[in-house]
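User: I'm preparing a small set of examples for a lab meeting where we compare how different chains pack in three dimensions. I only have the primary sequence for this one, and I'd like the structure in token form so I can line it up with the others. Please keep the answer compact; I'll paste it straight into my notes.
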Amino acid sequence: MKVGIFFGGPAREREVSFAGGRTALANLDKGLFQPVLIFVDGRGRFRRVEPSFLQATSLRDVIPQDTSGFSVYDESLETDALAAGYPEIRPETFSTHFDIAFLAMHGPDCEDGAIQGLLEWYKMPYTGPGLVGSAIGINKILQNELIALANGQQKKTATIDRDAWERADKAQFFQSLTEHLGLPIVVKAPHQGSSIGVAIVREPDLATFCRSVEQCFFTMSVQPDGFTKLSEWAELSADEKRDLAQTMVSLDSGISFPVVIEQTGEVIRHPQVLIDKLDSMKGQPLTLASVNAEDDVLFEEFISGQEFSCGVIQDDDGRAIALPPTEIYNVTSFDFESKYKLNTTKKRIPVATSLENNRKIQLAVAEVFTKLGINVYARIDGFLTPDERVLLHDPNTIPGMSPSSLIFKQMAEIGLNLTNALTYLIRQSLRERIRTGKNTFHLKRLLANLDAKLANRKANPLPERVVSFGPSDEGFAEAKQEYNRLAASGDVRPSLVYLKSKVENYEIPVNLLFKETIEELETALSQPRHPLLVETTEQARHITERYV
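Assistant: Understood. Below is the structure token output for the 548-residue chain.
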């Protein structure tokens, strides 16, 4: 089966997606699937690329750049800048290139039902939740309302749209909001993932609050009472202007290009053009907005408690099974920087609470997954409060796909290595696409062919290949890389063996593959498994036995 791995896309999370495409390519079972790489550029065009495309550190490193000295994405380049090196393919020809689309994209257009709808129109099956679950999963305002209807949870929220914000007395609005929600206030961009745009206002400081709201609208003011660095434009040096313009390119911390000057409607695609324009306007008040700016901002009360993230998968009957939840701690807020850039954030499975509370989290997550119409898999975040309430938010319908992503760690706890997890995702997606009643015979044939290959592998196991390592962190890391490489080859069945001494060795189970150090590994080997992990493994055994 040919699998088109879709990565990139026009959303602000495309760098996360770029890394996810690399993970999918490296870990897809080559004995079952033939990967085909589909890079979706910033303008939403589909380009077939070679594996070498994914070897760059970041997407901007592989995109051709102009002579300006700025590092930009392709929206800032000429419309045909990628045409020569990366040929475009049209949706109506997808079926000639691959049999199923593996979606490793995130954010608006990629995770909201847009790409899913396009693929359904062209009768192309795809991985992950369908149209309903995707549309709900991208909208944080709607999520809060539907989760409250699904399980009765109570969480204080408020919203404001852009027009109302522009008319509002900012100080009065901030005061009324603090009276309603208290401090701190969590400020969110409703349609972004990876915590992009999230800010926490901890003090009664109006300037900080206004900057946070502008950040979530993806706007910037150039005026004397502006709340961003742009308000000081006339006083900046040439180097400071270049640095600021380059920062604006950033998809996770800047408003990104293209931007529009709201007073004139002029669209600016390149940072150098922006510098020239602002210099020519000589301090005239104006507002810059991303062409993909949010029109609403969501405010939530700050929840104190243990933060967690919990994956959900399905069996063939469509029944949701919650994976063991991961607790996120040692972090003030689980934002983009703490998720992807900091090494200080700590995680543990399950949550450091009672067995009953962990079960309560799983039940709440599985219930919301089902009632919100999500299928295949998802990751749902939340808090366990000091009074033992479970408050959920932010269903994520295409969780991040780095090798160390939370959902892959949770799937390892039930016995699925990274390659098995990707196979599950493809197979279960086919099963769920069949339920739509579209192109049913073709999808059933794809599923039957895959099931036959999986059954044959169970009946005729691949030869075992032992990967051994000694008591060093470096050796452990190298052994895990080799294990994953062999698992994805489709030629052998790897096993990982820890040679602690000449007389003492251990075969490492899949659930310990994500330990990072020898010390963590030895601690885990010396302790019994948590009852929740044993319990969840048994609940999911009828799923995992198909792949292991």
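A couple of notes for your slides: The first strand starts at residue 2 and ends at 8. The mean pLDDT is 93.

User: Perfect, thanks.
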